[in-house]
Amino acid sequence: MSSHLSSDIQIEGDLNCSTDLIFDGSIKGNITSKGSLTIGQNASVNGDLKAEKAVIEGKVVGNGTFNSCRLSPTSVISGSVVTTSLQMDEGASLEGQCKVGKASAKA
Predict the structure, then answer these.
(1) Does a structural domain hold residue 106?
(2) How far is it, in rounded angstroms, from Cα 34 to Cα 43?
(3) Does residue 26 belong to any structural domain of this protein?
(4) What is the pLDDT along the chain (107 residues), one digit of tens a residue?
(5) Cα(7)–Cα(20) distance, rounded to whole angstroms?
(6) How many domains is the chain built from?
(7) Which of the listed residues 30, 48, 49, 59 has the most CB atoms within 10 Å of its CB?
(8) Does 105 fall in a domain?
C-alpha cells in the first residue's frame, strides 16, 4: 500500500507517512516515511527527508537520512545525504556532504 501526492499539492509543515509515499508536490517542511519514499520529478522539497528507501527525482533543499538512496538523472539536491547504500545516476546533482556505508546511516 502506498500514498501518492500529486504535483498540485502544496504543503507547509511536516509530512509523516507510515507506508510507502510518492510525493510530486511542493513542501516547506520535513518528510518522514517508514517505507519507501519517492520524490517525483515535479517535486520541490525545502526540508529534511527520512526513509528506509528513497528515490529522488526532483529538487530537494535539505538533508536526507536513508538506508538506501537512488538519485535519478533529474535530481537536484542541496544538502547532506547519509545512507548505507547510494546509487547516483549520470546527470544527478548533489551539492553537500555525503556519508555512505553501514557505519554512517540508520534511518
Answers:
(1) no
(2) 19
(3) yes
(4) 788 999 999 999 999 999 999 999 999 999 999 999 999 999 999 999 999 999 999 999 999 999 999 999 999 999 999 999 999 999 999 999 999 998 664 54
(5) 17
(6) 1
(7) 49
(8) no
